[in-house]
Structures are given as structure tokens and as C-alpha cells.
Amino acid sequence: MQLFKKHTKAQFFINFILVTSSFCGFYVIISLLILGSSNSKLLQHLHHSSSQDVSTISTNTTLDHIVFGIASSKSSWTKRKDYVKLWWKTNNAMKGCVFMDSISNEDDPSSLPPLCLSRDTSRFRYTFKGGLRSAIRVARVVVETVALNHSNVRWYVFGDDDTIFLPENLVKTLSKYDHELWYYIGAHSEIYEQNRLFGFGMAFGGAGFAISSSLANVLAKVFDSCLERYHHLYGSDGRVYSCLAELGVGLTHEPGFHQVDLNGNTFGLLAAHPVTPLLSLHHPDYTDPIFPNMTTTQALQHLFKAVNVDSQRMLQQTICYDKWFSWTISVSWGYAVQVFPSHMFLPDVVNVQETFKQWKQGNVWAKTYTFNTRPLHHDPCKRSTIFYLDNVSFGEDGMITSYYKKSFQNCSNELGSPNKLEVIKVVTNKLDLDIKQLQAPRRHCCDVLPSSASDQLEISVRECKDEELIFMH
Ligand SMILES: *[C@@H]1O[C@H](CO)[C@@H](O)[C@H](O)[C@H]1NC(C)=O
Ligand SMILES: *[C@@H]1O[C@H](CO)[C@@H](O)[C@H](O)[C@H]1NC(C)=O
Ligand SMILES: *[C@@H]1O[C@H](CO)[C@@H](O)[C@H](O)[C@H]1NC(C)=O
Ligand SMILES: *[C@@H]1O[C@H](CO)[C@@H](O)[C@H](O)[C@H]1NC(C)=O
Ligand SMILES: *[C@@H]1O[C@H](CO)[C@@H](O)[C@H](O)[C@H]1NC(C)=O
């Protein structure tokens, strides 16, 4: 009984489906015949838009998807355009504008971004005592960069005229994130006190920061209303941060951006870069030239010789040991190699050496940093011997060779000290991080190679093996 009942039920359903589906098929055929060409247009349109969606999602992020908004002024541009020239790629490879308070004739427009005149901001109040009301004009760079109306934009990147970006690394880093979601990406200051005052959640403007296009389009619409409310704030970055906070968006921290709120010699900071692509440097006018015997601009141009060969490996720190002499060798690729005359544990080597002076005089917090630092050893013979980048080249075998030359000698008589070394040669392949390596970075390993000359040390940098540990053994 039961079986029979089921059978008839099933048959009924099959008949029902056959009838309805043939009716549907009939209907479709009829409507196709009737609608004819208009229907095929509709199908074409559907096909077109879906293929467009797929392509925008699946293609890799490139420089073409980024629009830069650089804040400058007539008084600073003359000097600082040299910094922008370092990283701005010509021949329309990059999009964006330098926002000025007034524009005079540009002498060398081909190698620099176009200049845009900032809109009038006199209608906004500025009530921070002792501050500069240009903060409003600079904050509105966000709005005015969006208003450039570029198409196919995924990211807006903002910075000052003394922010030195590494564009390829920006592209790589931003490609980790979905630009269709709301992202505000940047870094805070090196100084605890600055972050306490301005906010740990604020992307410091000089370090540069990125806003996804989906968020920037909304921010641009509401920004002026925020400016009215935050007249009491000091800077432009605080205004952007406050408005994003009102939109409910927090900071995504990327430690490759560098505000560089430091004075003097930034060697210690640069030599111990976190394992993440270098995205920016800032405040070159407040810090010593990063290479000895060079002007600030010459030194940065020298650094960019390495950036142009392997942007992603810039400053990446690798540690290895010379067993024979018990030396600890720290390679900060593209910048410097240090040889410490003794055995050091890895966590000590990756701490930032305090080579710099504090940003501003003040209370104890003014020299409290947001990372671990260690003082330089009081005995010059216990400090590292520093070898600075001399040259870097791409070999035919695809390997990259960089040479580092000893800069000065402060300790002359120690037996087995690294003093007799003059040159360090470092061999690597070109770094091209994939999405997984960007999301879960790992430091590379290095080996000391048998050297061909007694005054030369040769090092090869490579990916570590699965269970490889970096220690002296
Ligand atoms: C996207 O980038 C990855 C990693 O760099 C690369 O392997 C892949 O070929 C790229 N895809 C396209 C379509 O360019
Ligand atoms: C951008 O588009 C908006 C709205 O369509 C328009 O008001 C504005 O003038 C355009 N800006 C530029 C620089 O073309
Ligand atoms: C690179 O520098 C090393 C020493 O620092 C030197 O021996 C070599 O000739 C230089 N190579 C080039 C191509 O300049
Ligand atoms: C810097 O210049 C001084 C004096 O001209 C020279 O003795 C020294 O070797 C130079 N240092 C480097 C790293 O070139
Ligand atoms: C080396 O000695 C010079 C001159 O005495 C000094 O200016 C410099 O700071 C010293 N450098 C290091 C790393 O000790």
C-alpha cells in the first residue's frame, strides 16, 4: 500500500514537473521569438557586466589603481620636490597631484606629479592655539584627490612632500586588502608621547597612509561637515582620523610606514626594520643623511639604487653567525651590514639600536619609543663595525649582488675583531612576495660563504628551511 501510494505520488510530481517545465520552455521560446533582438542585447549587457566584475576582482592590484594626494606648499616645494622626484615614476605611470597653496611655473614638470591648487578654506574655523591653519587645507587633500575623478581607482594614498614612498611595495602591501571594503591603513609615531597626544588609532600623516576607494568616496562626501566640528585639533591627520572615527572605521596598522619622529642618526631604526615591506620614510630634513659623506638627497638617491633593483627586499634584516670568530652578522639589505664582534642572541640583534636623538625635549615619555631599543655599547670595540651599501647589480644568472664598504674604524687593536674586513658581498635572489608571504611573513636566513679574500666576507641570503632556527651553532 505504502509503496504504491508513494509511486503514484512520485508519478504525479513527475507529470506535474513535465507539464510545468514544458510550459516554461514554451513560454521562453515564445518570449525569445517576440523580444528577439532586444533580448539578446539584454543578454549581452548581462554578460558584459559580469565579466567586468570578475576582471576587477581577479586582476592584481597595480600602480595604475592608486591615486596619490601629496600635500605641499609654495615655500617647501622648491626644496622638497627633490624628494618626490626620487619615487615618482614618470610617463604617466602614476596618478595623483601635489596640492599647493599657490602655483608658480614648474621648471621640470615631466619628472614630477602635476600641481593642483588647493581650494579656499577660509570658511572653516581653526582654533588650535599656536597651530597652523594650513592643517585644514592639507586635510582637504583627501576630498580634492577624490574629486580628481580618476577611474578604476582602488586606493588613495596620502602623504607630505617630505614623505618618501616606495611605490612597488605600496602596491604589494595594498594588494593584501580588498579595496571594496572600508580600509584606513597607516602607522603611528615612533614616540609613545606623540601617540598618547594624537591617538594610537591615528595614521600619522607624514608617514603616509592609504584609504580604500570605497571608503574614500564616502569620506569625501561627509568630510567638510567633520572639519566644522574639529576646528580645535592641531593637525590635518587628526582631522582625517576623527572623521573616519565618526564613520566607525579604525586604523589597520602597517609597520612599513615610517613617521620618523626622530632626530640625528636614524641608522638604528633603518637597520632593524620589521619583517614587512618598507613603505615610506619621512622627515629627511630633520635627520642626518642616511649614508656617511653624502648630502641628504645624495644619500636617498643612493638608497634608491637598491630600491630600483629589489624594492621588496629593502632593509629586510637577516642574521647569521661566523662560527670561527664568533661574529654576529646582521644584513639590512640595500642599506648596511653590521658585524658584531661577539655572539648575540637573535632577539637582541633585532632590537633597534638607539643611534638617534629624541624628537623633542620633554618629559620621560618623550624618549619612550613604541618598540624595544637598546643603547649603543659604551665601548666602541664592542659595537658593530658598519658596512654601508656601495653598489648593487643584477647578474645574468638572475642573482642580485650587493657590496657594502666599511665606513670608519673606531677600534683598532682587538684580536679577531672584524676590523680587518673592508668589504661585504651579499648574494640574494630577487624578492617577490606572494599573498601568503605578505600575510604571514617570515624572516630569511643567511650563510657565511667561504671567502675569496681575507678582507672580504661573502654572505648568501635565502629562505629558511622549515625547522631552521637562527642561532649560533
Ligand atoms: C598576480 O600576482 C601573482 C603573484 O605575484 C602572480 O603569480 C600572478 O601571475 C599575477 N596574476 C596576473 C593576472 O597578473
Ligand atoms: C568630478 O566629478 C564631479 C561630479 O561629477 C564634478 O562636480 C567635478 O567637477 C569633477 N571634477 C573634476 C576635476 O573633473
Ligand atoms: C662594487 O663595489 C665593490 C667593492 O665595494 C667593488 O669591488 C666593485 O668593483 C664594485 N662594482 C661595481 C660594478 O661598481
Ligand atoms: C668620508 O670622507 C672622509 C674625508 O674625505 C674620508 O676619510 C672617509 O674615508 C670617507 N668615508 C667614506 C665612508 O667614504
Ligand atoms: C667613531 O668615532 C667617531 C670619531 O671619534 C665618532 O664621531 C663616531 O660617533 C664613532 N662611531 C661609532 C659607531 O662609534
From TrEMBL:
Q: Which UniProt keywords apply?
A: Membrane, Transmembrane, Transmembrane helix
Task: Quote the Pfam families the UniProt record gives.
Answer: DUF604 (PF04646)
For whether the record's keyword set contains Membrane, the answer is yes
Among InterPro entries, the record links this protein to: DUF604
Membrane-crossing residues? 12-35
Transmembrane as a keyword of this entry, yes or no, is yes
- Which PANTHER family does this entry report, sorted A to Z? FRINGE-RELATED
- Kindly provide the name given to this protein in its UniProt entry: Uncharacterized protein LOC101511630
**Per the UniProt entry, what species is this protein from, by scientific name?**
Cicer arietinum (Chickpea)
Q: By which gene is this protein encoded? A: LOC101511630
